[in-house]
Write a structure and sequence with these properties.
Blueprint: E1 2-11, E2 14-24, E3 28-32, H1 39-46, E4 54-60, E5 66-67, E6 74-77, H2 89-99, H3 106-115, H4 131-142, E7 149-153, H5 161-174, E8 179-183, H6 187-193, E9 196-201, E10 204-208, H7 211-215, E11 222-225, E12 236-243, E13 246-252, H8 266-274
Parallel strand pairs: 3-8, 3-9, 6-7, 7-8
Antiparallel strand pairs: 1-2, 1-4, 4-5, 9-10, 11-13, 12-13
Helix pairs in contact: 4-5
């Protein structure tokens, strides 16, 4: 469906992508990486907002044929979805359909608002919507034309717990057979929504076939330690934890320790990977 073939991108001396090659099919992917690692830039390259310095981004249709002008097949929610505050939710979708050159019907707009739980807000102006409603409206515009690929950049940023739950329910309903790429730094969003994980680190992408595969990177390296002051080896603190009624500190250590080992989480595996503790 979507293939990154040796994609290279840099800004002056800053390397964002170093010959990244990855195949993306009908699946939900979590894109993880440090702040500033290039997640947003990579999505902008796929949508041709940014030009790559080398390599190719290839989209193929259901018959395996390459489509040169593939943007009609991609829906994109940018990190900052800012639209005219005086427009209504209905008018926003009309506006974006016009930008995309897509002749949208009133029935299609109402359907998009319905599946995003925005029907009651149809005629409300953007400035009166909550943060979560605006993000859902952003997803609605990304779904215009029923794209095969959906790119969502930090979609739950700034949302309260209830809105985050609403967002997750929406994604579960709409993902279907699409290729969905969810860029985020919130590990729980990845765990609950994504089938596979892509970690962007030092300009390269490493793919994991499941959340469990990433968690396994830290297997045998996660410990509960009562007092870290006596540790002679380097470690990464993951915060407090209670084990057998005792207050401990959860740590990741590359060196084996004489301490209770813990079952690794996806976050443990991610930290272990990017901190090169594996």
């Amino acid at each position: 469906m979507l293939k990154l073939d040796g994609v290279h991108k840099k800004f002056k001396s800053a390397l964002v992508a170093e010959k990244i090659s990855v195949d993306l099919g009908p699946c939900t992917y979590g894109l993880l990486g440090r702040n500033g690692s290039g997640k947003t830039t990579l999505l902008r390259c796929i949508t041709r907002v940014e030009k790559v310095n080398g390599g190719r981004i290839v989209y193929t249709d259901g018959d395996g044929r390459e489509v040169k002008d593939y943007l009609d097949h991609i829906g994109y929610l940018p990190q900052n979805f800012d639209v005219f505050p005086e427009l209504t939710a209905y008018e926003v979708l009309q506006f974006f359909a016009n930008l995309k050159g897509y002749k949208i019907t009133e029935e299609e707009i109402d359907h998009l608002l319905e599946i995003l739980n925005l029907s009651p807000q149809r005629d409300m102006t953007v400035k009166t919507l909550s943060g979560g409603m605006k993000r859902r409206l952003g997803i609605a515009q990304a779904l215009i034309g029923d794209p095969d690929v959906l790119l969502l950049d930090e979609p739950t940023a700034g949302l309260d717990p209830e809105e985050r739950l609403n967002f997750k329910n929406v994604i579960r309903r709409i993902k279907g057979d699409r290729c969905v790429v969810l860029s985020t730094h919130i590990i729980t969003d990845i765990e609950s929504l994504c089938d596979r994980i892509l970690v962007l680190c030092d300009g390269r992408i490493t793919a994991f076939d499941s959340c469990g595969a990433l968690a396994d990177v830290a297997r045998g390296k996660v410990y509960a330690v009562e007092d870290t002051a006596d540790l002679a080896t380097p470690f990464h603190s993951m915060g407090p934890v209670t084990v057998d009624g005792k207050a401990c500190e959860k740590i990741i250590s590359k060196a084996p320790l004489n301490a209770p080992a813990l079952e690794p989480t996806v976050e443990d595996g991610y930290i272990c990977f990017i901190e090169k503790l594996s």
